């Protein structure tokens, strides 16, 4: 048995992984061990601090269930989710709409609703219509694109956090028409705090960070022949735009309210509108 030192322990551990038959797994573990060990050396990590970290992760596990994912929230608040999103999507052609975090509140199975549907259900708030087109990068309209949309109510809660909202409220699956147009009615989104009743909330508090996300509406857009786009629109003027707790807001995704055309909107003539055209990246050709 060799004598291990502060430096040689890292080499000994790396050697144990060196026989890994999967080259990618090998790369992931080697880098993880190098950075983890270097972190401990750099900060001179104490046993008490190490234990506090273990307790933190244990608490994250305990609070996680099918409706609450504290580890994703941790990744989000540490900026890791946003970094992975940028690594994955940062080299897309610049005409395409930027992506933004999916977040933990997406749900499969939102109701299929028609063009111009109202997704707000019984929730009251300032009314808004969201509309625009989905096109490919050459400007061709994308007909039949599927838009999953979801947002929080003005109380800052998504349906699955709020017993006063019906199941799947403020969510819908919508299709673009033959000209690539989409349109739906809702209420204006509000800024809201990410869940703070778990270890991540304690962490934000301990380091003096606020937990708020700027007001936004989420979109997941899927269309044949195109890469699926996960994104969100952020409301201009929101005071948290530059300090989003999960680093998701992007300048190119900030939208303001405009007045909606009365003729097209005779049901609710005083309504504000958000107009945004989404541009999808064609899928790589196989062959
Ligand atoms: C969201 O926008 O739904 C969200 C994203 C990351 C963490 C918490 C919430
Ligand atoms: Fe959200």
Q: Quick one: overall form?
A: globular
Low-confidence stretches: none
The gyration radius over C-alpha positions equals 23 Å
What is the percent of helical residues?
25-40%
**Bound molecule types:** benzoic acid, fe (iii) ion
Query: What's the assembly state of these chains?
Result: single chain
Run of helices and strands:
HHHHHEEEEEEHEEEEEEE
Estimated structural class: alpha/beta
What name does CATH use for the topology of the largest domain? Protocatechuate 3,4-Dioxygenase, subunit A
| Major pleated sheet | 6 strands, mixed
The count of strands amounts to: 13
By DSSP (H or I, 4+ residues per run), the number of helices equals 6
- Give the count of structural domains: 2
Distance between the termini: 54 Å
Instruction: Supply the CATH architecture of the largest domain.
Output: Sandwich
Per CATH, the superfamily of the largest domain is: Aromatic compound dioxygenase
Give average pLDDT, whole number: 94
The level 1 CATH classification of the largest domain is Mainly Beta
User: How large a portion of the residues is in β-strands, by DSSP E?
Assistant: 15-25%
């Amino acid at each position: 048995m060799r004598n291990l030192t502060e430096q040689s322990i890292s080499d000994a551990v790396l050697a144990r992984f060196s026989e890994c038959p999967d080259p990618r797994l090998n790369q992931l573990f080697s880098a993880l061990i190098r950075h983890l060990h270097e972190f401990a050396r750099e900060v001179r990590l104490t046993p008490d601090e190490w234990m506090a970290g273990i307790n933190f992760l244990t608490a994250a596990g305990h609070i996680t269930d099918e409706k609450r994912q504290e580890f994703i929230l941790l990744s989000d608040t540490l900026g890791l989710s946003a970094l992975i999103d940028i690594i994955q999507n940062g080299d897309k052609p610049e005409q395409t709409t930027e992506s933004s975090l999916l977040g933990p509140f997406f749900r499969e199975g939102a109701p299929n609703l028609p063009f111009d549907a109202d997704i707000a259900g019984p929730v009251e708030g300032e009314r808004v219509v969201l509309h625009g087109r989905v096109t490919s990068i050459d400007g061709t309209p994308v007909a039949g694109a599927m838009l999953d949309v979801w947002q929080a109510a003005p109380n800052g809660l998504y349906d699955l956090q709020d017993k006063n909202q019906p199941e799947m409220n403020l969510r819908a699956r919508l299709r673009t028409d033959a000209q690539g147009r989409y349109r739906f009615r809702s209420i204006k989104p509000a800024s809201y705090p990410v869940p703070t009743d778990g270890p991540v909330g304690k962490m934000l508090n301990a380091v003096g960070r606020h937990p708020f996300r700027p007001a936004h509406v989420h979109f997941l857009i899927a269309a044949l022949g195109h890469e699926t786009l996960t994104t969100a629109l952020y409301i201009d003027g929101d005071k948290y735009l530059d300090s989003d707790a999960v680093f998701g807001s992007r300048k190119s995704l900030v939208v303001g309210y405009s007045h909606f055309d009365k003729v097209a909107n005779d049901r609710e003539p005083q309504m504000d509108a958000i107009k945004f055209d989404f541009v999808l990246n064609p899928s790589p050709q196989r062959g």
